[in-house]
Design goal:
2 domains, Aspartate Aminotransferase, domain 1, Aspartate Aminotransferase, domain 2, globular, three-stranded antiparallel β-sheet, 14 strands, binds pyridoxal-5'-phosphate
């Protein structure tokens, strides 16, 4: 098998199970006599696998009747615009919770779609290190948009906002990491590359009755109705990304599904946060009750130790630990496929560092 012995704590694209890498590699060489990279998306084999992938999403998340699953392109970044255009109604006004970076970009695209955007909750006052809980929902809104997990700032909604209207969520960095009640949402979207598969596909889970109701004139590709009517095959889909996502979903379901992975993710998060909270050389940056199980942000208590610590984790084969420039310090992203043994490599190294400096 492969592969590298590195411990991938990168924020995205994500680590995937080794078995999935192997199966995807095999399909590059042989997908019923062709390569998955050359096969027609209209071939019976791929049409079947596209349907299978859409069904596996439903199975993994217990998606109720009345929702469709689509795989588009453009990433969550285009999703910001697509969701605003499609969820717009006569108010042409939407509520957004600003929890930093990605939600800030979603707000910008909501405005680009021509909507009035009210920021009904924000944690900007503390560099987005917490989840705003009291929302100022006084207007008539077409929908409420929020980001379930804030990849850059290391915060995560543990309880979803209560809203008496359509709820739209960018779930890019924690979808499939824990059970969710899809019926609570009207539209969920997520770039595949944070927990589902390789970059290229963007997943939409949409309540069917909401499709095609926008008063805006939406360009063909950006209209969810285009894709809904064509079973996510309007144009060439990102075949390899969808296929590998299918492999990953099968792997997830075979290993106990989102309930089992949530327990595993919790154990990894407890291990690392436990170390951060007890080790005098480190401190977490996010408010404790809002800390993300996916992206753990922390800093050194003494910046002068940076070079030495960086050398240590580099030598241990850890990659992707550098924090985002807007937070600084470190960010350990622990997506589904990261094994707890990799987290132990990191926590043991942090302990060793503290002993050395004591
Ligand atoms: C990475 C990320 C995005 C951007 O995704 P792209 O697919 O690269 O456009 C948006 N939202 C969140 C929460 C992310 O983590």
């Amino acid at each position: 098998m492969i592969m590298s012995k590195k411990h991938n704590f990168g924020a995205g694209p994500c680590i995937l199970p080794q078995e999935v890498f192997k199966q995807a590699a095999e399909a590059v060489l042989d997908y019923n006599g062709l390569s998955i990279l050359e096969v027609s998306h209209r071939s019976a084999d791929f049409v079947r696998d596209m349907e299978e992938t859409r069904n596996l999403v439903k199975k993994a998340l217990n998606v109720p009747e009345g929702y469709t699953v689509l795989f588009l392109q453009g990433g969550a970044s285009l999703g910001f615009l697509i969701t605003a255009m499609n969820m717009c109604r006569d108010n042409k006004r939407a509520a957004y919770i600003d929890t930093g970076a990605w939600s800030t970009k979603a707000i910008k695209e909501g405005k680009n779609a021509g909507l009035e955007i009210d920021v009904v909750g924000s944690s900007e006052d503390k560099n987005f290190n917490y989840i705003p809980k009291n929302l100022n929902l006084n207007g008539s809104y077409d929908y409420l948009h929020f980001t379930s997990n804030n990849t850059i700032f290391g915060t995560q909604f543990k309880d979803f906002p209560a809203f008496d209207g359509p709820l739209v969520c960018d779930m890019s960095s924690d979808i499939f990491s824990r059970p969710i009640n899809v019926a609570d949402f009207d539209l969920i979207y997520a770039g595949a590359q944070k927990n589902l598969g390789p970059a290229g596909a963007t997943l939409y889970i949409v309540k069917e009755e909401l499709i095609g109701k926008s008063p805006l004139s939406i360009p063909t590709y950006l209209d969810l109705n285009t894709h809904f009517k064509k079973d996510s095959m309007f144009n060439t889909p990102p075949v390899f990304s969808v296929y590998t996502s299918m492999l990953n979903l099968k792997h997830l379901i075979a290993n106990g599904g989102v309930d089992a992975i949530a327990a595993k993710n919790r154990a990894k998060a407890d291990l690392l946060y436990g170390e951060i909270d007890t080790n005098p050389l480190f401190e977490g940056t996010a408010a404790k009750e809002d800390r993300s199980d996916m992206n753990v942000t922390f800093t050194l208590t003494n910046e002068a130790l940076k070079d030495e610590f960086d050398q240590m984790w580099n030598d241990a084969g850890i990659v992707g630990l550098k924090g985002h420039r807007s937070v600084g310090g470190y960010r350990a992203s622990m997506y589904n496929a990261l094994e707890i043994d990799s987290v132990k490599v990191l926590t043991e190294l942090m302990q060793e560092f503290a002993t050395k400096k004591a």
